[in-house]
């Protein structure tokens, strides 16, 4: 069933359609929020905001872009608001603590969490240390698989600007990862 | 792109994708549940709102249908059952007769209008009498034809360096050369008789900020921004009084009598003018009007016994063109206190082969201490990078293009700044030929790229900055962001020195 069909059914009163739509996007939205905020708990809170706002405005979705693009635009604005309101409260990267704490409540075992992180920490830190727009473009392009045009729509930038940011982001991340490798070598 | 490079890029992308995937974190069941509940709450409100909306629409349809029915019923009732009072009333509106048919009705109204007009008091004939006798002299001036020279190269502004003019007067014909002329004080491109000397004066009172004398016969007075047409006319009155010129020697020109001005002038500049003929002394033509938000008065004065020169002013006016972009005077001029510049001027500028006019807003940057103008309809987004502070101006959410200004951090070198421009904006080969004189370097999108526009890198007091515009669609760049970038350059002013960006 397409997103648009699910939306129609959800608005018509079908709760299972709401659940399906949520299930389809919840992890992806969370990943975006997490990579953008660099803070697990804040991403969890924003997740609720995003789904509440998206659902409340569901009737306003006119299908001019894909639902996914529309949803990620809402995510982006939520992140912008988040940074606006947390301007003075710098969030330190507390990946280990946050993730482990959160995942202790998830299905994943503590062992797998720790093992999963082992050896990746530096790379993850590299990514989370990237400028906000770099993380955003890399996430939308490489994880979400959005096209340049879709990414431009979500990021409210021109395609040229998106290409530029992507180029710089890739260069920067590659450079950081190479530095990590050379340190270990 | 070589196969090896492509493979390398593919590998880089793969590594990045893997790295990005590693940075993912699992979402806890509790959070999933909470966000599901939040979504349910939102959906329920959306359904409720949708329900209200439908009810509102139903009500509106109902009332619309009802009001239509009621109106129809009411009209029908009036026509079928209760026409007497209406007819009676109509009788009093149009006399004692029955209500006339519609066309008669109109005739009656017309008659009434005529009657009303006829009832008006006749105008006092004296009102039309002229209070002062006005001059009605005719002058016989040489006729002329501008003959553009052949095989002469245009300059960088696509202008001919000179023009040849063929005059004829009372059976005589002769040629004169008019050479290109422009002066900083006036936003005009002109041609003046060859070898005529030009002098500039500033601040000589009477609200005249700049006075430009061309030879012995032509003078331009450019008034200060607050001056208006009355100030200009008063100066003519004063001159007439001071020189003891008689009223029959001065002819105030009607709009039809004002000369045709300029090629490529965006609008009719001249508002008024005078011809002054003093027999045995001089023949003068004075014209005035508004130019870039300020009044300009043009005076052409020739010896009475040298009528062959009397058309020189006409030639000058015909060959005149306004330098664009330029500010158009508006009624409400609000001045910014920091920069003392107009906050929202109306600016005229060249677009393709036409002239556009729109309101711009003042943009002031404290970091580099400059101000310029950006269309007031543009939305501004400010972003900070690890190297640069960016101001991105766009017209719509679709982002088909943008104009942006970027100010690099103090420790960013020229090479780093240039690399940033190439990384952010460049696609394919650099199509720039000659960067502007004020710039360090320029990138232009060349053929084969899917964007149009350019990015210009410059430096101020050891700090690098750039101005950039681009669009996916060449038309958007040509008609929107390209001209806007030109205007931003033209109106750019360094606040500490009051200097423009473009010095040429």
TrEMBL record, chain A:
The keyword Metal-binding does not apply. It comes from the Bacteria. The keyword Transmembrane does not apply. Gene3D superfamilies: 1.10.1740.10, Winged helix-like DNA-binding domain superfamily/Winged helix DNA-binding domain. SUPFAM superfamilies: Sigma2 domain of RNA polymerase sigma factors, Sigma3 and sigma4 domains of RNA polymerase sigma factors. InterPro entries: RNA_pol_sigma-70-like, RNA_pol_sigma-70_dom, RNA_pol_sigma70_r2, RNA_pol_sigma70_r4_t2, RNA_pol_sigma_r2, RNA_pol_sigma_r3/r4-like, WH-like_DNA-bd_sf. Residues 21-87 form the RNA polymerase sigma-70 region domain. Keywords: DNA-binding, Sigma factor, Transcription, Transcription regulation. CDD domains: Sigma70_r4. Residues 130-173 form the RNA polymerase sigma factor 70 region 4 type domain. Belongs to the sigma-70 factor family. ECF subfamily. NCBIfam families: sigma70-ECF. This is RNA polymerase sigma-70 factor (ECF subfamily).
From TrEMBL, chain B:
Residues 8-20, 44-57 have a biased composition (Basic and acidic residues). Residues 99-137 have a biased composition (Acidic residues). Keywords: Membrane, Transmembrane, Transmembrane helix. The chain crosses the membrane at residues 62-81. Residues 1-57, 99-145 are annotated as: Disordered. This is DUF4367 domain-containing protein. The lineage of its organism: Bacteria, Bacillati, Bacillota, Bacilli, Bacillales.
């Amino acid at each position: 069933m397409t997103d648009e069909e699910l939306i129609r059914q959800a608005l018509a009163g079908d709760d299972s359609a709401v659940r399906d739509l949520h299930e389809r996007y919840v992890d992806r939205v969370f990943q975006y929020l997490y990579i953008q905020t660099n803070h697990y708990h804040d991403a969890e809170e924003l997740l609720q905001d995003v789904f509440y706002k998206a659902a409340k405005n569901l009737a306003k979705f006119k299908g001019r872009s894909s639902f996914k693009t529309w949803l990620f635009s809402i995510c982006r604005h939520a992140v912008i608001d988040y940074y606006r309101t947390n301007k003075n409260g710098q969030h330190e990267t507390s990946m280990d603590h946050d993730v482990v704490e959160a995942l202790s409540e998830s299905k994943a075992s503590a062992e797998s969490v720790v093992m999963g992180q082992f050896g990746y920490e530096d790379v993850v830190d590299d990514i989370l240390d990237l400028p906000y727009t770099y993380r955003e473009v890399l996430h939308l392009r490489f994880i979400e698989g959005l096209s340049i045009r879709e990414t431009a729509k979500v990021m409210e930038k021109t395609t040229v600007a998106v290409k530029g940011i992507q180029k710089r982001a890739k260069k920067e991340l590659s450079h950081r990862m190479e530095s990590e490798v050379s340190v270990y070598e | 792109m070589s196969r090896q490079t492509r493979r390398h890029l593919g590998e880089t992308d793969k590594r990045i994708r893997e790295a990005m995937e590693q940075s993912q974190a699992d979402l806890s069941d509790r959070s999933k549940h909470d966000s599901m509940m939040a979504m349910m709450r939102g959906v329920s409100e959306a359904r409720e709102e949708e329900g209200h909306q439908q009810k509102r629409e139903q009500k509106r349809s109902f009332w619309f249908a009802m009001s239509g029915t009621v109106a129809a019923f009411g009209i029908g009732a009036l026509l079928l059952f209760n026409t007497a009072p209406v007819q009676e009333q109509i009788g009093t509106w149009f006399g004692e007769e029955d209500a006339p048919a519609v066309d008669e009705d109109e005739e009656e109204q017309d008659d009434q209008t005529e009657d009303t007009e006829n009832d008006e008091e006749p105008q006092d004939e004296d009102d039309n009498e002229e209070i002062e006798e006005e001059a009605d002299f005719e002058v016989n001036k040489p006729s002329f034809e501008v003959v553009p020279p052949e095989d002469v190269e245009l300059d960088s502004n696509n202008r001919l360096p000179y023009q040849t003019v063929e005059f004829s007067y009372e059976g005589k014909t002769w040629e004169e050369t008019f050479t290109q002329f422009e002066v900083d004080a006036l936003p005009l491109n002109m041609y003046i008789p060859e070898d005529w000397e030009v002098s500039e004066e500033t601040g000589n009172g009477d609200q005249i900020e700049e006075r430009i004398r061309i030879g012995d016969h032509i003078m331009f007075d450019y008034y200060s921004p607050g001056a208006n047409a009355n100030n200009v006319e008063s100066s003519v009155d004063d001159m007439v009084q001071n020189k003891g010129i008689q009223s029959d020697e001065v002819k105030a020109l009607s709009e039809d009598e004002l000369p045709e001005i300029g090629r490529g002038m965006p609008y009719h500049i001249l508002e008024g003018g005078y011809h002054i003929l003093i027999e045995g002394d001089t023949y003068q033509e004075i014209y005035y009007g508004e130019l870039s938000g300020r009044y300009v008065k043009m005076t052409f004065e020739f010896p009475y016994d040298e009528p062959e020169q009397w058309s020189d002013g006409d030639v000058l006016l015909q060959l005149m063109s306004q330098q664009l972009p330029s500010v158009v005077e508006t009624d409400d001029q609000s001045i910014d206190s920091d920069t003392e510049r107009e906050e929202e001027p109306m600016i005229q500028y060249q677009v393709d082969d036409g002239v556009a006019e729109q309101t711009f807003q003042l943009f002031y940057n404290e970091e580099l201490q400059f101000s310029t103008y950006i269309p007031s309809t543009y939305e501004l987004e400010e972003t900070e990078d690890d190297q640069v502070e960016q101001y991105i101006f766009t017209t719509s959410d679709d982002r088909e293009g943008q104009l942006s200004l970027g100010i690099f951090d103090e420790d960013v070198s020229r090479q780093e700044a240039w690399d940033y421009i190439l990384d952010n904006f460049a696609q394919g080969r650099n199509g720039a030929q000659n960067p502007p004189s004020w710039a360090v370097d320029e990138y232009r999108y060349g053929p084969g790229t899917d964007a149009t526009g350019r990015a210009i890198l410059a430096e101020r007091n050891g700090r690098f900055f750039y101005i950039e515009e681009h669009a996916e669609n060449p038309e958007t760049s040509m008609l929107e962001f390209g001209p806007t970038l030109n205007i931003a350059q033209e109106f750019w002013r360094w606040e500490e020195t009051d200097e423009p960006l473009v010095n040429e």
